[in-house]
């Protein structure tokens, strides 16, 4: 989410219809503690080793497309300070389309920025950052391009066996999670504690986001206009259009 919000990640291989396996880390830690307790105190010991999939209940699993769209919406409401470009990436299942996007919007800008930094005598970093991002995406995309079916019945039973006091201390109830609030907290947390951007900079960041939006649309319009002009002039369509408007020389 941080990479996308900073305009660094513009494309990701992901089937939006597959369901995400996302759970808050404190719920996962609580689950690990309860599993260890259950394993140590079980009497008699089970004949087969029990398997616990720490994941949310099936009805709580959101499609990746929903997660991405919600994350983008919240990213616009609570933007990070100006990044590489306007955050407007997307997901796709086409490896060819993804590869083209990665070359055009990941690697070319990274090399261009590093070249400008080199000319200015500054330390280069964008290619290194993009390499780390690509490595991370390769790992994540293994999961986002495949359908997974992790059953969580055993994990859910652990929570029902806890006392009311234990349930408050070791909360594992994913049904109570507000998905939008969870992502919002994730974005604001990443903003403050990873990027070191205090909440007081939000008004400034929103102005920067508007400026980046105008710049993004302007550049894309100019590039599209140049491309169309080049194609029309090469194919003779430009002369035909000029003649139809009575503008031909």
From TrEMBL:
InterPro entries: FAR, FAR_C
Classification via Pfam families: Sterile
Transmembrane domains' residue ranges: 96-118, 211-232
Molecular function GO terms recorded: alcohol-forming very long-chain fatty acyl-CoA reductase activity
Keywords: Membrane, Transmembrane, Transmembrane helix
Any one GO BP annotation for this protein: long-chain fatty-acyl-CoA metabolic process
Domain Fatty acyl-CoA reductase C-terminal stretches: 105-197
Domain of life: Eukaryota
GO CC terms in record: peroxisome
Name of the protein this chain belongs to: Fatty acyl-CoA reductase C-terminal domain-containing protein
Organism the protein comes from: Hermetia illucens
